[in-house]
Amino acid sequence: MATNISDNIVFEKANFSENGLPKGEYESCTFRNCDFSNGDLSGVTFIDCRFEQCNLSMTKVRNASLKGVKFSGCKLLGLNFSDCNPFLLSLAFENCLMNLTSFYKLKLKGIRFKNCDLQETDFTDSDLSLASFDNCNLERAIFEGTNLEKADFCTSFHYSIDPTVNRIKKAKFSRNGLAGLLDKYDIVIE
Hints:
Elements: E1 3-5, E2 10-12, E3 24-27, E4 30-32, E5 45-47, E6 50-52, E7 65-67, E8 69-72, E9 91-94, E10 112-114, E11 132-134
């Protein structure tokens, strides 16, 4: 049976990795220093919630609803966001460790990443138009069939984006980052 929990409840230093978070709807809640690693948040709804310094690595999120959810200082290794309910999916990330996460085929227009480590993250076939990648490490991140129109990569680094298989019209890149658009040509830029 689902439990409804809402109205600004703060969960602090709770361990949800083994017993899990009770199924239900969490609205305007804050999860601070909580451990969800290897846990299961499948079917749980989060509306306008914040996760601060939480560990959600390898957490299952099948059919979880994440609407207006912000992650700050979190560890999200291997999280498969493409398993989430795509309806009204809205996310923001700041100071997060997100290596090996997946956003495969998600519509995330205007998503914000700030100071995030996104190594080997999969953005294949995603809509990241108007996205902001502010000071993010995108080493070996996968961009293929990705809509990056008007996305901002000016302060990010280590990305490799092939303009022939991605939509990059009006995307912003710094001069120093232009080499990441030419990787497939195996040329030397000095």
